[in-house]
Write a structure and sequence with these properties.
- The structure is a homotetramer of 341-residue chains.
- Chain A is an alpha/beta fold and 341 residues long.
- Helices cover 42% and strands 13% of the residues of chain A.
- An eight-stranded parallel barrel of chain A has the order 4-5-6-7-8-9-10-11, surrounded by eight helices. A two-stranded antiparallel sheet of chain A has the order 1-12.
- In chain A, helix 3 packs parallel to helix 4 and helix 3 runs parallel beside helix 13.
- Chain A is globular, with a radius of gyration of 19 Å.
- Chains in contact: A-B, A-C, B-D, C-D.
- Chains B and D meet through strand 1 and helix 13 of B and strand 8 and helix 10 of D.
């Protein structure tokens, strides 16, 4: 993998404080296991927005997956489907919406929306996703402008020949489309509550607001029509120095209650991290980079292997913690003394 | 010592967060010594489940001790006896129950139970331990499945020729018995409160529930019939990311009160660690790895030397803290400000 | 740049505990961004003491800028003016007050006062600053004596030939004027509340008291007539081991309320640091060393570039945090759990 | 300096956790300076037990100073006297009581007492100290047995030819006297409250109880007749893992109130450390190792230089903190948020 590509995928904004803190915050948290429970059968099965998944793991939207593997988003979709989980396809996909849908026909999949200045373009993308059977829209709410990613600046990172934003490439000249800056230029800085409502109405799909770190922000998204929120700091790639997602999660789930589903991404690397997330009230986690490394290594099989191993780790962690299914996991399983309240 | 053997003994689960935290948590804690006390005579003598021991130290059950010394569990038993303390023999002993009993005839010793799927096998092992004069059963409650120990996976660790689970080898073909995976396959994932009661009744011995980290778990074990609990995370070898035992201890002793004895293992390396454990309400500590390194170095004499030195350190620490016997040690001897409450 | 010059600019007092802590304290703090806000237009414009500036950044007074660039304070003033912000000129300027004023004629600028034992000298300096159009006096209150800067002692640092305290050089023989120790010897150790009042009256200008770290100190300065205070520890160059400015800021703004403007310097390196400062109630930050490195590298253009980049980072951070202008930034944007209260 | 000698002086007990923590605890603490105070004259002069000293610094008792300089305790006494402070002479002095008294005839000096099993020997030593004009007894209360100092064990450290416990050498054969173990064997493990009273009565001198870390211990010493206490952990050389003295100090001064003077030693390396100690209620600090390194380097002049520099640092710190004499220093000068309460 080229250095520039690795840095694009692995890096974060500014000093990467949040990038590191995301991982460390899960590690700092301590589990409180139960004993004397019959864990002969442990099931990680759950539902997200009503769709049954093999484990409480979602594949996060990641841009330009063809950077790391020739099959790109198609292989990611196939790997996620094989693992029994849902993948969220990025607006910045390097494969078309229709090709990705064809790569895993029966699988649940979600479409990530970067709202564009031209709401018409957005509407077209959403319409195509609906037509292709995507079941939810993941609206990114933490990217009104792009974070300053120093690795990319230092590497003068550019998309290589042949990697394009496949879903909007037809609308603009190839020279423009290939420029990394394109979407940034077209991306809407004025995303507001009315856009959440509009997307829900236009698509008839549930909207998942991705990128909240506080209870207030989560409540606003739900008030605007979101069916779920993702506690996320965009993997440390947007505003550096924000709360680690593990540190933000509990206050969001407390504020949301049963009004919406809450997911979390950022720094989830182990089954015990998933267990901690569920203990703090998340319904599922999203993983981005781990899935990318799986894709880079072995395509769809690599993706499936990464998800499968994380799911195995979760099942082991659940058994060792004395829980048989996600519904038995509650706040008492984490030690809150060592954690900001 | 072969790398694989060292890693098997020294390693922990997943990222070894808890393995490290166990040691560091004792180190973080601060002592509050007394002065102007006559410490001309300091005695570390105490009792565990009614048996007098030279110091509040127990030898934890460790699997396959013949991996590190040819005399294995026999030498460990002899060394513990020479030091005046009790050893807990593992179900996964590489010497037979009867041979170990013969190696230290007059000594107090306990038998560790991994409950097996076939309760009959368990019953037979327990009956043999009773017949051989073992005085308590240490029921491991934190191992319904095995933790994921990456060192062993990376090393493709296997028991070498000639090291077997001596107490169950006769029941199965040698090829199967020698496979590390055997006991895991036969181990009961459905251990429940009724098993605690059954073991107590079957054996007529007190049951020590090993592997609790919360007051709730301790209360459940006692409610099920346990006479004592061990605050333990299996030396960081099972569920990674749980509370360090030093951080969990006070909440367990608070919940248990005088209803049962509480021991603690994990990261105990110094006499001051033992003093801190007693200050937080433990009746004794268990040591595993330090005793193994003593065994590996010099057999029974090495075990005796390790225990003797730790006991010397405890006696020195007690004198310097102004206490003459374990009964004088109380919670006021540790500074709780620097510690999770 | 000579080692001695670098150390003079970069170093701090004693063990440089505060020098490091200033930077780390901003980094430790966590932001709580808002979402679903229209950030099509983000303005960093604000006012300080009634003067409009392009962003809430002030250039801190720094001694002997000709050490790092031949144009010294003239270039710093020109760069600050080009960036649309105010520079505070040090009493220890290596250019004359009048030359600096001429270098950026229309720009707002402030004059930093080290009160001298001879109040008459001070009066003359202040009168010249008033005459040259400076709009506020920044009275340093944390330097009754000089901090012990070991780097300078070890380097036997001396001002090189040709660098002098330009504004007082005419009063004393060159030999004396060139000695670094001069101002220290003449500096007033008896600065009191009456001097604040006297400076305000003499100059007719607002007085900014620079160097408070507590609410009590801020209240005393305001009570003595200061129109603003700077939460500052002199960049870690005076009393080592004091509070990092990021840790001190909230208690000062709480104590001051709306009675005066509060600025803060020390360790501000990123736009997110500025955002955090404003969230804690600061009206603006002061930067010293970053501007010096810009000056050393490219003169006035370097200064402008450094300020411009910091301002760009702030604008990005504001957009990502969901705020459109400084007035929308409040305490809820920082997570106070991870911070001393 | 021989490695063994360096380690004997520099080292601590067990894992040297407390040795390191002593230094770090002062460094962790944060100062809150005052401004707008006239600090034209700053005086560090104070009294300890009624004797005026040039600054609130005492030289701690240290064993066998002839290990590092031929003039040993005589030079230490002369250096302390030249600096205007009081030195406490160790029972384990390598010079006689009378020789040390002669080395600094007019100076205030205290005598440190290790209570011996044979109270008669102790009485003789005390009588000699009284006769030689020592003005207080510093009774070490944290050494009923010796701490386990691994460096000394690993070095097989022994006193070299010619270095003896000069004050008891005449009582025993030279072979025995030269053995490091001697005093340990004769040292009283049964030191109790009655010994404090007996020493005070026998000597007619105030007794300073050295080695308390809690309010309870301080109250017991005062109740037994002590006129002052030293918050000390014997420089980390006795019970490892106890509270750092900086962390223990406030609770001791709170418990003692105005009933006795409180001093503190351990990790004091900077004038700001002294200022912090006084802010927490100490009347003076004791320094051991810094004075030893001064002695090793330049004899009495080195001792004087070390104390003089520390005093200079304190005076600078006081001026920068806005205090003119020790009586103006109070608890509000330290930030208690970052500190265990």
């Amino acid at each position: 993998m080229a250095r520039g590509t690795f840095d694009y995928m692995a890096g974060g904004a500014d000093d990467e404080v949040t990038l590191r803190d995301n991982v460390e915050a899960w590690t700092r948290m301590r589990l409180r296991p139960r004993v004397l429970r019959d864990v002969s059968t442990v099931s990680t099965t759950t539902t997200v927005l009503g769709t049954e998944v093999s484990c409480p793991i979602l594949v996060a939207p990641v841009s330009y997956l063809r950077l790391v593997h020739d099959e790109g988003e198609r292989a990611m979709a196939a790997g996620a489907a094989a693992a029994g989980v849902i993948m969220a396809l990025s607006t910045r996909s390097s494969c078309t919406i229709e090709d990705v849908a064809a790569a895993a026909p029966g699988a649940g999949r979600w479409f990530q929306v970067y709202l564009l200045r031209d709401r018409g373009w957005t509407a077209d993308l959403v319409d195509r996703a609906v037509a292709a059977g995507f079941r939810a829209l993941v609206l990114t709410v933490d990217t009104p402008v792009l974070g300053y990613r120093r690795r990319d600046v230092l590497n003068a990172f550019e998309l290589p020949e042949g990697i394009t934003m496949a879903n909007v490439a037809s609308r603009v000249s190839p020279e423009v489309a290939e420029a990394e800056g394109l979407l940034a230029a077209y991306q809407a800085p004025d995303l507001g509550p009315e856009d959440v409502a509009w997307l829900a109405e236009r698509s008839g799909l549930p909207v998942v607001a991705k990128g909240v770190l506080t209870g207030e922000a989560a409540r606003e998204c739900i008030g605007a029509g979101a069916s779920a929120v993702v506690v996320s700091n965009h993997g440390g790639r947007q505003l550096d120095g924000v709360l680690a997602t593990a540190d933000a999660l509990a206050s969001v789930t407390d504020a949301v209650g049963s009004d919406a589903e809450v997911y979390v991404d950022g720094g989830v690397r182990r089954g015990t991290d998933v267990l901690k997330a569920l203990a703090l009230g998340a319904r599922a986690v999203m993983i981005g980079r781990p899935a990318v490394w799986g894709l880079a290594t072995s395509g769809a099989e690599g993706v499936q292997a990464v998800i499968g191993h994380l799911c195995f780790e979760l099942r082991t962690a659940m058994a060792l913690a004395g829980v048989r299914h996600p519904g038995e996991i509650d706040r008492a399983m984490v030690d809150l003394r060592s954690h900001p309240q």
